[in-house]
């Protein structure tokens, strides 16, 4: 029997995205036969390095065949080399730090990396005539790495980055959802009327929910199921169970489990199949080059008048 390690910050009180992940896990057990028959081992990593290391020890001792999760880059960064040494595939639905696939030879990322997110954000900003961006970040590894990727990408862009809002055409904040909402609230209350950019973890209605002043808000993140023709069947199944369309992170989770299901059908090992094959998943086609998804997609979320105004694919 195949054994699957499943890991994330599982407390919905700590992160709203935990709900999307857990729902994706549950639906995957219904949709994918090899996932349904597998033994599932869960670990709550608390989105921390220490939690990640504890989860990895648990999974390795249990002899898992693959791990899906470590949603937080801080947790994933602490364990990618450990899984590589153990020869265990680690499938990342939503950890974006670019170095994760460089440091972990058995790591496979479903979503776009923060390097790709940075490039798409700067390209969009330049096209909108927002040529000077003030950059800020929370203390998380995700926020710090995303900000550094923006600095690096700006060196090859026409966009200039600064630390002073007074010099900027728009403001970018990199960080987790709660910190992003706090940044939005504080800056609108202080009278900042500039367009605000946020990055992937902020892709949630909770970012602007209940706020009387949102102004123009962009989030450069991942698509949801309704954006992707390939996700139609999985999205309908999600709606039948939960009464709503599959949100961001649910579709990446479904894609990660579908990879395990499809790879398990091959005669070669799970690790070899992930390195060589192309897969048709609910998130679209996936093929890995050095652990990165060649077909990773980026979506732009545009909020205006306290609601989601539009969402479109940037790549």
Q: What would you report as the Rg, rounded to the nearest angstrom?
A: 19 Å
The outline comes out as globular
CATH architecture of the largest domain: 3-Layer(aba) Sandwich
Number of strands: 15
Measure the end-to-end span.
38 Å
Percent of sequence in beta strands: 15-25%
What is the share of helical residues?
25-40%
CATH H-tier superfamily of the largest domain: Response regulator
In the CATH scheme, what's the topology name of the largest domain? Answer: Rossmann fold
The assigned structural class equals alpha/beta
Biggest β-sheet description: 7 strands, mixed
CATH class of the largest domain: Alpha Beta
Compressed to H and E, one letter per element, the order equals: EHHEHEHHEHEHEHEEHEEHHHEEEEE
Q: What count of domains describes the coordinates?
A: 2
Main sheet: which strands, in order across? 7-6-8-9-10-14-15
Average pLDDT works out at: 92
Low-confidence regions = none
Number of continuous helical runs? 12
